[in-house]
Amino acid sequence: MRLIYFSFDYCSHDHRFLSALSETDHEVYYVRLQSGPRQTEDRPVPSNIQQVRWAGGRSEFHWRDVPRDVFSLKRVIQRVQPDLIHAGPIQTCAFISAMTGFHPILTISWGFDLMQDVHKNRWMEWITRFVLHHTDYFTSDARVTRDKAVAYGMNPERTVVFPWGVDLAQFSPTETGVTNPPSIVLLCNRSWEPLYGVDVLAKAFVTVARKRPDLSLLLLGSGSQGTTIRHILERGGVMDRVTFSGQISQTILTRYYHMADLYISPAHVDGSSVSLMEALACGLPCLVSDIPGNKEWISEGENGWLFPDGDAPALAEKIIQIVQQPRQLKTIGQKARDTAEQRADWKKNFGQLMHAYELTVNIGRK
């Protein structure tokens, strides 16, 4: 099969997809919409993936460039003659693909496109409906995003849901540990953007740090809320209890999960969060916001814990409750790993993408 993989930028998710595709017999052409200023993936594109030179992909994406990009992608399609286009997110890459008039298209939701971007304005709603009307098959990583797609007009019989998953060999529990460590480490690696609620965690940590001197916070990443988050921590007098590690390479990310005792995701919107799956795979107990995407993975008190989305006092109270019973962390961590093995194995889940490709191509042949 000859296919075009069309994605917004080059991130860890793209690397995961392209690496797996590079090991198949498919002829894969990678089209990149932008080269952004905050690319975090430092691993190269697999050598046997053919990177396409076209009008886009050389700088940041701008809406004014859509007509140019549609014309350029048409020329790429004429040259490559693909059997299908795999495109996402919905309002950018899938939209440009749909505008070319090509079929068949497999539209893949990246979560935020249906959980956040579609609500920005009527124009984004129109684009979403247009794309899904011109989509031959649809796939996403969570039921909540699939249901959103159906609500915006996607044929429910032409959908495939599968968690993208993680490499269970790379993300695995540590075989060594520290007995009675001097502090309990809370870890959050969500981006410092309004969507991910790291400011909520900062407020909660100020509260718990006053009550538990043995707690510390490890924050990875960065983002537009950096000043706000640091101000919350500084004003709360807890900056000496926080470690800022910045952007971390995927090649060493596992060691940060191993440093922690509790993973926290305060995200307001998510599908099947890959960072949550990574934490589960590492056997790290998880405390996450009670949004629908997280509730597909975490059952309260069984393989992790939930707190009311956006409620910093409730998050602080939950952290205190959890760390007061340190023995349960090991038990919950083992169940977290079990969850990852059962549902988050990328090598198994990748087969669902291959199945979606087959379904999409068969639609195109009719």
Average of the residue pLDDT scores: 94
Total number of β-strand segments? 13
- Rg over CA atoms, rounded to whole Å, is 21 Å
Structural class: alpha/beta
- Count of alpha and pi helical runs: 14
| Most strands sheet | 7 strands, parallel
Would you mind describing this structure in some detail?
By secondary structure, this protein is α/β, with parallel strands linked by helices. It has 2 domains: 2-165 and 346-365, Rossmann fold (3-Layer(aba) Sandwich); 184-343, 3-Layer(aba) Sandwich (Rossmann fold), CATH 3.40.50.2000. Helices cover 42% and strands 15% of the residues. The chain has helices at residues 12-22, 66-80, 90-99, 112-115, 122-133, 143-151, 198-211, 226-235, 253-259, 274-281, 292-295, 312-323, 327-343, 346-365, and strands spanning 2-7, 27-32, 50-51, 84-87, 105-108, 137-140, 159-161, 184-188, 215-220, 242-246, 262-265, 286-289, 305-307. The strands form 2 sheets. A 7-stranded parallel sheet has the order 3-2-1-4-5-6-7, with helices on both faces. The chain has a 6-stranded parallel sheet with strand order 10-9-8-11-12-13, sandwiched between helices. Strand 8 (184-188), helix 7 and strand 9 (215-220) form a beta-alpha-beta unit. Helix 3 (90-99) packs across helix 5 (122-133) and helix 7 (198-211) packs across helix 12 (312-323). It is globular, with a radius of gyration of 21 Å. The two termini are 17 Å apart. The mean pLDDT is 94.
